[in-house]
């Protein structure tokens, strides 16, 4: 009986590892293939069958893609847009999350229900009304148009509110007894306790807006405002059918910052999503 149970557990463990390996392979293979293509000579970009490694490495694909697609300027724009959005969102979602979690005011539950309803609305559904609104006030084709529609985040408010609910009221009462007002309690007690969730939201925000294509496509007509996905799209339209290696190299360069960010912030991201503990 014991042997059967042990064998069953071993088979179950092996099956889980096998499924995990299959999932990892399916997820990673497109990235590895893009890397392989970005390093391949032009005559090996399209081959019959699968050749995992190129016969020689052509690093010039990266230099040509960087120059032809003007990725340096586009990535600088992307960093400025993404950073500006993140700073403004952090300033707005933290007080909002705290208010919904710990403050008592009329209409709080109804307002939070509206926040939850916003999570159900796809961003594509609001793109056209936002575009018309931005155009009506003369901000289309400006840096402000890339930032202003994203000054707050429903998912950020929801994440912070859900975490801040778990903060003991006794901790806030102790802060009040020490003479801290609402703002100082938020800054010196609540924010440090919520850092894992804030970090997780920051990663989500950066991923979302660094990779956003639809909104810059609508409002950024001037090449000086192109963000990385938009610059990559324009480059693809110009080079379709002739420079797959350069296209793959450009895609790798645009993807690299997101990958590096996730590797650096992985632990905080997982802790924030899972629900971080209060520091002792």
TrEMBL record:
Domain ABC transmembrane type-1: 75-265
PROSITE patterns: ABC_TM1
A GO cellular component annotation in the UniProt record: plasma membrane
UniProt-annotated location(s): Cell membrane
Keywords, sorted A to Z: Cell membrane, Membrane, Transmembrane, Transmembrane helix, Transport
InterPro entries registered for this protein in UniProt: MetI-like (IPR000515), MetI-like_sf (IPR035906)
CDD domains, alphabetized: TM_PBP2
Keyword Transport applies: yes
Biological process (GO), any one: transmembrane transport
Protein name per UniProt: Sugar ABC transporter permease
Source organism of the structure: Brevibacterium casei
Phylogenetic classification of the source organism: Bacteria, Bacillati, Actinomycetota, Actinomycetes, Micrococcales
């Amino acid at each position: 009986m014991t042997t059967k149970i042990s064998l069953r557990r071993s088979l179950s463990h092996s099956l889980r590892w096998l499924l995990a390996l299959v999932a990892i392979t399916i997820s990673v293979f497109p990235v590895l293939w893009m890397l392989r293509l970005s390093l391949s000579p032009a005559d090996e970009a399209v081959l019959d069958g699968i050749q995992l490694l190129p016969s020689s490495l052509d690093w010039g694909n990266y230099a040509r893609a960087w120059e032809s697609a003007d990725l340096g300027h586009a990535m600088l724009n992307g960093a400025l847009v993404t950073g500006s959005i993140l700073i403004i969102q952090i300033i707005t979602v933290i007080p909002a999350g705290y208010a919904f979690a710990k403050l008592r005011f009329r209409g709080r539950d109804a307002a939070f229900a509206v926040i939850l309803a916003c999570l159900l609305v796809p961003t594509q559904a609001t793109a056209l009304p936002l575009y018309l609104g931005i155009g009506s006030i003369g901000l289309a084709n400006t840096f402000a148009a890339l930032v202003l529609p994203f000054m707050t985040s429903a998912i950020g408010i929801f994440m912070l509110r859900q975490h801040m609910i778990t903060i003991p009221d006794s901790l806030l009462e102790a802060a009040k007894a020490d003479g801290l007002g609402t703002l100082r309690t938020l800054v010196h007690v609540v924010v440090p306790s919520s850092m894992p969730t804030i970090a997780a939201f920051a990663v989500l925000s950066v991923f979302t807006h660094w990779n956003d294509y639809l909104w810059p496509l609508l409002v950024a007509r001037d090449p000086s405002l192109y963000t990385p996905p938009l610059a990559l799209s324009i480059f693809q339209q110009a080079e379709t059918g002739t420079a797959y290696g350069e296209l793959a190299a450009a895609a790798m360069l645009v993807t690299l910052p997101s990958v590096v960010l996730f590797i650096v912030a992985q632990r905080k991201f997982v802790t924030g999503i899972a629900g971080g503990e209060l520091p002792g």
